[in-house]
From TrEMBL:
Domain spans labelled AMP-dependent synthetase/ligase: 25-377
Record-given protein name: AMP-dependent synthetase
Lineage: superkingdom: Bacteria
Domain (AMP-binding enzyme C-terminal): residue spans on this chain: 427-500
Key words, A-Z: Ligase
Family of the protein in this entry: Belongs to the ATP-dependent AMP-binding enzyme family.
Keyword Signal listed: no
InterPro entries: AMP-bd_C, AMP-bd_C_sf, AMP-binding_CS, AMP-dep_synth/lig_dom, ANL_N_sf
PROSITE patterns, alphabetized: AMP_BINDING
Cytoplasm found in the keyword field: no
Length: 508
């Protein structure tokens, strides 16, 4: 059975991402596009468009163009947006880099993506300079040129490219299993997902959006940043989630649409003083990136005075496939992920087969639509395993009710999601196996009070070693969100006859 959206298909413009998002900015003129919630830096829509044009002209004069990749490593701030769309406007692809990565991890992403230059925020410029030959800084740094020093008065480059086949953004995702891979998202993929999302979430010039979830993550990139700019909203950026600052931002800027990850909802449900802030401007609150507990949701929305609903997607789908439409916010059951977005088809199949489950039964979710990636970078085998006959295998177990409302039940994939960030067990296992005391190791996700779930390592040792020693060893080589937070010593790691770790036997 093929499931379809209750909304009609939308037209997908045959343009680049920057043409679609920034090209129409003139109609919003001097309205505020971006505000740095911490520093107060402000960009109007007219100013944003002018800065993107000047940045694109400067990058092009520097030799950046179609076929190149630019790495962008920054927290959320207005200059991130200028650099992002300036690079895309040259015809290059952008690979967003998490600033929390270690120099070694950054170096590997640069190698895999083939990035020519790095544009980095001031706080992480030293890390970028450690691993890259050419770095431009969003701000000032004694050993690197500022990004704005490139700006010229010339026009943006005239591009002759096919939006359907040209990659615009190259985020890295672990997919359904394994180590991170470059996800090739074309201009058409991203434009399609913005058009699809806009049909259900009618963001407009009267909206104010709080943007604390990172733009280097596809959720923040598409659903918050570019959807907001496309609709003419004011987007208020914050570099990280700190509850008191976030609540002051919601109240002070009269935010109408808030975007959460589950740890934020937990904080709003349990922290004191939430009611001390005037949050009456909030009309919609969306949670994504990981499953959300219904009871926690209900506690948080009572304190916010605003309903919280979930959406669903994955990096490989640009990311959105399901949403709770504005008109259905009150009537859609909490805990569900809503209905299919326009132009999107779904199947629910018996895992490991191409056989559809009976109506109402649980199975693996398959997705087909114009937002589905062009494939993984330089990895045809992983692409073929993930997309078959146009259907994207999500690795998630779902069910759909008779009204077309979908519920995420569990997931087949091995990924751990700590505070919404993807953590690949295989990557942590590889690090553990380099320790001289470790004979074998397996990593699984276990419940965690703050992160939703977190990595736990099961370790077979060859010599005495403590759990704290192993956790410190791993922490020194990976980003903070990837850290192993618990170690259990075992006599053996359960494996199948072919050597595959049987993680289900290790999970609680």
């Amino acid at each position: 059975m093929i499931h379809r959206s209750p909304l009609p298909d939308v037209e997908i413009p045959d343009v680049t991402l920057t043409e679609y998002v920034i090209g129409g900015a003139a109609r919003f003129g001097d309205a505020t596009a971006l505000v740095d919630g911490r520093t107060g830096e402000t960009l109007t829509y007219a100013g944003l468009r002018a800065a993107v044009t000047a940045g694109a002209a400067g990058l092009a004069a520097h030799g950046i163009g179609p076929g190149d990749v630019v790495a962008l490593m920054s927290h959320n701030q207005p200059s991130f947006v200028v650099a992002l769309h300036a690079a895309i406007a040259t015809g290059a692809a952008v690979t967003p880099v998490n600033p929390a990565l270690t120099p070694g991890e950054i170096s590997e992403q640069l190698r895999l993506s083939g990035a020519r230059v790095v544009i980095a925020a001031e706080p992480v410029a030293d890390k970028a300079l450690e691993v890259a030959d050419e770095v431009f800084v969003l701000g000032e740094h004694p050993r690197a040129r500022s990004f704005t020093s490139l700006f010229t008065d010339g026009p943006a480059p005239r591009l002759d490219l096919d939006p359907a086949t040209t990659v615009a953004v190259l985020p890295f995702s672990s997919g359904t299993t394994g180590i991170p891979k470059g996800v090739r998202l074309t201009h058409r993929n991203l434009v399609a997902n913005l058009a699809q999302t806009r049909a259900g979430w009618r963001i407009g010039p009267d909206d104010v959006q709080a943007a604390v979830l990172p733009f280097f993550h596809i959720y923040g990139f598409t659903i918050i940043l570019n959807s907001g700019l496309l609709g003419g909203a004011k987007v208020v950026t914050l570099p990280r989630f700190e509850l008191d600052e976030y609540l002051r931002t919601l109240a002070g800027h009269r935010v109408t649409r808030a975007y959460f990850a589950p740890p934020m909802v937990l904080a709003l449900a349990t922290a004191p003083h939430v009611e001390d802030h005037d949050l009456s401007s909030l009309r919609f609150a969306l949670c994504g990136a990981a499953p959300l507990d219904v009871e926690v949701t209900e506690r948080a929305q009572r304190r916010l005075g605003c309903l919280i609903r979930q959406g669903y997607g994955m990096t490989e789908a640009s990311p959105g496939t399901h949403q709770v439409f504005d008109d259905d916010f009150a009537s859609t059951p909490p805990g569900s992920v809503g209905r299919l977005s326009p132009n999107t088809e779904a199947r629910i199949v018996v895992p490991g087969t191409d056989e559809d489950v009976a109506p109402g039964e649980t199975g693996e979710l398959l997705i087909r639509g114009p937002q589905v990636m062009a494939g993984y970078l330089d990895d045809p085998d992983a692409t073929a395993a993930t997309i078959t006959d146009g259907w994207l295998h999500t690795g998630d177990l779902v069910r759909a009710d008779e009204d077309g409302v979908f519920w995420v039940v569990d997931r087949l994939k091995e990924l751990i999601k700590y505070k919404g960030y993807q953590v690949a067990p295989a990557e942590l296992e590889a690090v553990l196996l380099t320790h001289p005391a470790v004979l074998d190791a397996a990593v699984v996700g276990v419940p965690h009070p703050e992160g939703g779930e977190a990595p736990k390592a099961f370790v077979v040792t060859a010599q005495p070693v403590t759990g704290d020693e192993l956790m410190s060893f791993v922490a020194g080589q990976v980003a903070p969100y990837k850290k192993v937070r618990e170690v259990e010593f075992v006599e053996r790691i359960p494996k199948s006859p072919t050597g595959k770790i049987l993680r289900r036997l290790l999970r609680p």
